[in-house]
Amino acid sequence: MLARKSIIPEEYVLARIAAENLRKPRIRDRPRKARFIAKNGACNLAHKNIREQGRFLQDIFTTLVDLKWRHTLVIFTMSFLCSWLLFAMMWWLVAFAHGDMDPSTESTMNSTKWTPCVTCVRSFTSAFLFSIEVQVTIGFGGRMMTEECPLAITVLILQNIVGLIINAVMLGCIFMKTAQAHRRAETLIFSRQAVIAVRNGKLCFMFRVGDLRKSMIISASVRIQVVRKTTTPEGEVIPIHQVDIPVDNPIESNNIFLVAPLIICHIIDKRSPLYDISAADLALQDLELIVILEGVVETTGITTQARTSYIAEEILWGHRFVPIVTEEEGVYSVDYSKFGNTVKVAAPRCSARELDEKPSILIQTLQKSELSHQNSLRKRNSMRRNNSIRRSNSMRRTNPSLIVPKVQFITPEGSQSTSET
């Protein structure tokens, strides 16, 4: 430590550290905003302090369908086991009340015409097996019911009705869980990012949507909502304020024909919440654009819904989606590897309001883009020309066969002259 202090003075070290801290200001990361809708369409919402839990039991079928698979399978198994055990106890009581469990009845049955209620039921295990055979309608033939006990007939009818109800409810729940509408929405995809660019002289918010299956979505429609935190003039804070924004669609019914990936466009006009937002203001905005695609599945006829959202960091200003549909040998081909690819294009950095007030901004932007494009082409051509000249010179130096030989000419006066041909 003494040697270091003697080489580097302490005053110099402190001054250097202070200068580095002044040159590099500390930038605190902006806290990440909670999304209302995740990219996969799930709602980022937690329900707490629900006191009226009994309302879920009033709609028991929907509650069973909404449960997780492991919970559904546990309920499915326990319902059958409990019903088998319950009716096994009832069959055992019927046999016990009739005297079928008494060991002396076996000799009496052989000597007289005494008939049991259920044959071969002499323990709880045999009663449990008979309960399974009755409810599942297996019928092995060893145990059977006789006409001796009217109570046993009543238990048989009751167990058949209960078994049919359990089968209908449980199988219906499993079918609905496997055929839920959000399963079809897994093949409806959205572009990872949205873009803002000029289309037909207007600033537009655009994103791409596609369907991976060949079976189409009938009567598909797209809705866009802006979710932001707002405060009313009265001072009321609305944490999730939803505003619908229109979608540019030439069809009056607002339905889309989703046979191939489409670019959905929203024109930023006076009705749009993005009307006063410029490129510099976009990063500072605390907003979320929710996209909802609804339609009917062609194969099943079930209505499905796919959702996603875009926050300010996922919106690219001055970009455009690359084309992915091409015609190859009479067939339209879609390249999904370029589904979310974008290219940078000329777009004014001002808001749509400023663009409407000063249309010359768009003309100046396009002129600057054209000039920069021409300059880049000139630089590229000049670089290619210089590279070709350098390549030819290097080839002449490396290849001696390309060097022009020297030729000597003899004049009448006897002098010699050297030239290159």
UniProtKB/TrEMBL annotation:
Biased composition (Low complexity): 384-397
Key words, A-Z: Ion channel, Ion transport, Membrane, Phosphoprotein, Potassium, Potassium transport, Transmembrane, Transmembrane helix, Transport, Voltage-gated channel
GO molecular function: ATP-activated inward rectifier potassium channel activity
SUPFAM superfamilies recorded: E set domains, Voltage-gated potassium channels
Residues carrying the site annotation Role in the control of polyamine-mediated channel gating and in the blocking by intracellular magnesium: 167
Domain Inward rectifier potassium channel C-terminal, chain residue ranges per copy: 188-358
GO biological process, one term: potassium ion import across plasma membrane
Subcellular location: Membrane
GO cellular component: monoatomic ion channel complex; plasma membrane
Keyword Ion transport among record annotations: yes
Keyword Amino-acid biosynthesis: no
Main location: membrane
A Pfam family: IRK_C
Bilayer-spanning residue ranges: 73-94, 151-175
Region (Disordered): 372-397
Family to which the UniProt record says this protein belongs: Belongs to the inward rectifier-type potassium channel (TC 1.A.2.1) family.
Designated name of the protein: KCNJ8 protein
Organism of origin: Ceyx cyanopectus
